[in-house]
């Protein structure tokens, strides 16, 4: 049972090359059980800059989970159940543009879905139908704070916006695909922003991404094509920049965000309460309970 005093405010999901956050103090590991299965790993809960933070490595701490199988629903649900209201997602990405160089940081403002396999993209797949707005897939307020924190805390070039192409993987793109994405005007490519961003919106979390450019994918004649070992090597050199950005962000974060993200379900649940079986109401209490409460009690049968 989470109490007021140990409620966690901020979640951080670490991607390739970011498997822990040494800056956290007063740390404990929490294993959370969710209706959507087990999260990627135990959550590491600690303090940073006076804020309670939960850290979760997306692929597991030894990087054993392939992008398609990342249990994104369990991850987001577990963070929400600890009290998280703001979620930062760190990821390694390939660059689709000359001016986005390896070592640069990007806070994406858009995403294009090129996933195609077995990813569970909604919490609401039974009894309750929910259509959340997703025109702005990232929280603009949190994205700007994150970019500003990265500029303060690192020497890296920080790009304030960009479109993230989320491909399925695990194989990297063909050159023809990479050129296609470039012709579409997409900026960076990775395998994990979706469905994470969609689920964060359904969970009414502010969500922003810190993308570390690790390579030029496979379109640039002057550089080697992307490889997993190359990505890992660039991340070894640059994970300190990601960590410094996170620390600076936490120092400047409002623990009581007032964005629209925090109320995304208010206009999104289309199924009336009296059509939802009791068991489903219970299962969805964490995510929609307060919206159902606002509708008043269901009519007596
Ligand atoms: C190790 S290269 C490909 C791998 O790196 C990215 O991971 P993440 O987004 O979790 O940082 C990419 O999405 C792939 O999963
Ligand atoms: N080029 C690339 N394609 C997909 N995911 C990546 N992660 C890092 N670099 C990548």
UniProtKB/TrEMBL annotation:
It is an enzyme of class 2 (transferase). Phosphate binds at residues 16, 58-59, 91-92, 192. The keyword rRNA processing does not apply. Its EC number is 2.4.2.28. InterPro entries: MTAP, Nucleoside_phosphorylase_d, Nucleoside_phosphorylase_sf, Purine_phosphorylase-2_CS. Keywords: Glycosyltransferase, Purine salvage, Transferase. The record marks 173, 228 as: Important for substrate specificity. Pathway: Amino-acid biosynthesis; L-methionine biosynthesis via salvage pathway; S-methyl-5-thio-alpha-D-ribose 1-phosphate from S-methyl-5'-thioadenosine (phosphorylase route): step 1/1. It catalyses: S-methyl-5'-thioadenosine + phosphate = 5-(methylsulfanyl)-alpha-D-ribose 1-phosphate + adenine. It comes from the Bacteria. Substrate binds at residues 191, 215-217. Homohexamer. Dimer of a homotrimer. Belongs to the PNP/MTAP phosphorylase family. MTAP subfamily. Catalyzes the reversible phosphorylation of S-methyl-5'-thioadenosine (MTA) to adenine and 5-methylthioribose-1-phosphate. Involved in the breakdown of MTA, a major by-product of polyamine biosynthesis. Responsible for the first step in the methionine salvage pathway after MTA has been generated from S-adenosylmethionine. Has broad substrate specificity with 6-aminopurine nucleosides as preferred substrates. This is S-methyl-5'-thioadenosine phosphorylase. It comes from Streptomyces lunalinharesii.
């Amino acid at each position: 049972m989470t109490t007021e005093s140990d409620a966690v405010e901020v979640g951080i999901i670490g991607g390739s090359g970011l498997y822990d956050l040494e800056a956290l103090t007063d740390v404990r590991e929490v294993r959370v059980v969710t209706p959507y299965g087990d999260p990627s790993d135990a959550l590491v809960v600690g303090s940073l800059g006076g804020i309670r933070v939960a850290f979760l490595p997306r692929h597991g701490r030894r990087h054993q989970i392939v992008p398609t199988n990342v249990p994104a629903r369990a991850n987001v649900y577990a963070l929400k159940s600890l009290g998280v209201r703001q979620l930062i997602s760190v990821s390694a990405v390939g660059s689709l543009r000359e001016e986005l160089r390896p070592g640069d940081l990007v806070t994406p403002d858009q995403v294009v879905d090129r996933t195609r396999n077995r990813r569970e993209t909604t919490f609401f797949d039974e009894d309750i139908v929910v259509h959340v707005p997703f025109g702005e897939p990232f929280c603009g307020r949190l994205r700007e704070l994150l970019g500003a924190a990265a500029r303060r805390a690192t020497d890296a070039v920080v790009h304030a916006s960009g479109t993230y192409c989320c491909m399925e993987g695990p194989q990297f793109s063909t050159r023809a695909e990479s050129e296609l994405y470039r012709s579409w005007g997409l900026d960076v490519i990775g395998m994990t922003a979706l469905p994470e961003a969609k689920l964060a919106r359904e969970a009414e979390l502010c969500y922003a991404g810190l993308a570390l450019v690790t390579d030029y994918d496979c379109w640039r004649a002057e550089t080697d094509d992307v490889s997993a070992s190359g990505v890992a090597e660039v991340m070894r050199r640059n994970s300190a920049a990601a960590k410094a950005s996170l620390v600076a962000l936490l120092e400047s974060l409002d623990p009581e965000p007032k964005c629209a993200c925090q109320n995304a379900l208010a206009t999104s649940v289309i199924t009336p309460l009296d059509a939802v079986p009791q068991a489903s109401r219970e299962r969805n209490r964490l995510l929609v309970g307060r919206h159902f409460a606002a509708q008043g009690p269901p009519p007596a049968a």
